[in-house]
Structure formats: C-alpha cells, structure tokens
Amino acid sequence: MDVSVRDLRNHTGRVISAVESGELVVLTVHGRPVADIVPHLKRSERRPSDRLLADLDELRELAARLDVRSPADDFDVGLTTDDMVG
C-alpha cells in the first residue's frame, strides 16, 4: 500500500490499522517512495539458559542415537537468531 505524507496525516488511524494487520506501507512524497512503514517484529522466545542447555543435551542424545553428524561450520551463517526470525 502506498500512502502519501498528506494521506498519512489525514488518515493516520487507517494507516496504523493496516500496519497492525501485517501490511507493508510505503510512504511517498510527491509520488516518490521515501520510507517503509512495517509491522513491528516480535522477538524470538526468551528461554532460561538452563532450559536451553537441557534441550540441546536432549537433541545431542537424539542425534547420537540416530547417528546424525553435522560439522559445526554447516551452521555458521553469520547471523544471530534474532536476525533469522525477521
């Protein structure tokens, strides 16, 4: 959805409702795109460290039982988990 600065000023509630429902809004000035208004990304689930480590141990045991092996560098993509969620 493209919205001019004037329309944003006059119909802010409608634009916010569209963004809240997941729509990307492109803000324009004289028909030229100048900004994207996007829904706020929710952060990934926060888990206590001890629970995360217990889950990883469980996965490690399952992988050993199934004889699954993956080199660690297969998983190094240069991103954090928050980067990947977005």
Walk me through what this model shows.
By secondary structure, this protein is an alpha+beta fold. Helices cover 43% and strands 16% of the residues. It has a domain at 2-37. Strands 1-2-3 form a three-stranded mixed β-sheet. It contains four helices and three strands; from the N terminus they run βααββαα.
Briefly summarize what is shown:
The chain has 86 residues and is an alpha+beta fold. 43% of the residues lie in helices and 16% in strands.
Supply the key terms.
single chain, 86 residues, alpha+beta, 3-stranded mixed β-sheet, 4 helices
Write the layout of secondary structure elements.
Layout: E1 2-4, H1 5-10, H2 12-20, E2 25-29, E3 32-37, H3 49-65, H4 81-85
Parallel strand pairs: 1-2
Antiparallel strand pairs: 2-3
Q: What is the rounded Rg?
A: 22 Å
Average the pLDDT over all residues and give the rounded result. Answer: 87
- Beta percentage is 15-25%
Shape summary: elongated
